[in-house]
Amino acid sequence: MERPLLAVLLLVGLVIGCAVGSAYARARRGWNDYQTVKKSVPGARRGAWTLVRGVVVKAGVIALLLFGAVAYAAVGADEETAGPAPSQAPTESERPHR
Fold it and tell me: What is the secondary structure of 14-81 as a DSSP string?
């Protein structure tokens, strides 16, 4: 009777050991992944700010170009001449005054 009890205890120990071992392996992989990502965060943050800086510079250049175009259009409209204005000629119904 002792052998079946010993076999059952060994089987239960094996199942518990497998469950604990696989949980430990998952925890260890998770910890290693966490440490890897933690080390890469400063580089990723620096890369993100570099991309944001590039977008801001491009938007600033476009805004300056638009502002320059509007300013040029505003100044250019005053300088354009349509030609000499027609002078008023006396009409035939009017008499010349002395």
Answer: HHHHHHHHHHHHHHHHHHHHHHHHHHHHHHHHHHHHHHHHHHHHHHHHHHHHHHHHHHHHHHHHHH--
Alpha-carbon distance 79 to 42, whole Å? 55
39-91 residue pLDDT tens:
888 888 889 999 999 999 999 999 999 999 999 888 875 545 556 666 776 66
* Tokens coding 24: 């430990």
Single pTM value for the model: 0.45
Query: Sign of the CA dihedral 78, 79, 83, 88?
Result: positive
Q: Which two tokens stand for residue 93?
A: 């119904």
Is residue 96 a contact partner of residue 90, using CB atoms and an 8 Å limit?
Answer: yes
> Cβ atoms within 10 A of the Cβ of 97, count?
5
Per-residue model confidence as pLDDT tens digits over 34-43: 999 998 888 8
